[in-house]
Amino acid sequence: MCEKHHHTVSIIDFNSINSKSLFVKVIGFDADLGKEFEGEVKFVNGMPFGDLIHPQRSILSPTCRSTVRSYLLNKYNEGEFI
């Protein structure tokens, strides 16, 4: 039987620089590539930026990149980083 893996994302740290900038460090597993990853995403005025979630520069598969971006946006909008 083939075991199906899923993308995972965990926030391991975050640091608010000022009221407009926030850095979030994440680790996880890209199920499409079968590899663990770690990286950092910067939020500026509520928008996420960084190579980890950039469509052309990300080391992640497209579905994992989208999962990470959505997960972090949801956490940000829920006030997780206050």
Structure overview:
This protein has about 80 residues and is an alpha+beta fold. It has one domain. The chain is about 20% helix and about 40% strand. It has one helix and four strands; from the N terminus they run E-E-E-E-H. A four-stranded antiparallel β-sheet has the order 1-2-3-4, with helices on one face. A hairpin with a 2-residue loop joins strand 3 and strand 4.
Backbone structural class? alpha+beta
Shape: globular
Report the strand count.
4
Question: How much helicity do the residues have?
Answer: 10-25%
Q: What's the tally of helices?
A: 1
Strand content: 35-45%
- Tally of separate domains: 1
Unreliable parts: none
Mean pLDDT: 94
Cα-atom Rg, whole angstroms? 13 Å
Q: Quaternary status of these chains?
A: single chain
Order of helices and strands: EEEEH
Describe the main β-sheet briefly.
4 strands, antiparallel
Strand ordering within the main sheet: 1-2-3-4
How far apart the termini lie comes to 44 Å
Write the layout of secondary structure elements.
Layout lengths: L7 E9 L4 E10 L4 E10 L2 E3 L12 H16 L5
Antiparallel strand pairs: 1-2, 2-3, 3-4
Notable characteristics:
20% helix; 1 helix; 82 residues; alpha+beta; globular; four-stranded antiparallel beta sheet
Could you write a compact summary of the structure shown?
By secondary structure, this protein is of the alpha+beta class. The protein contains 1 helix and 4 strands.
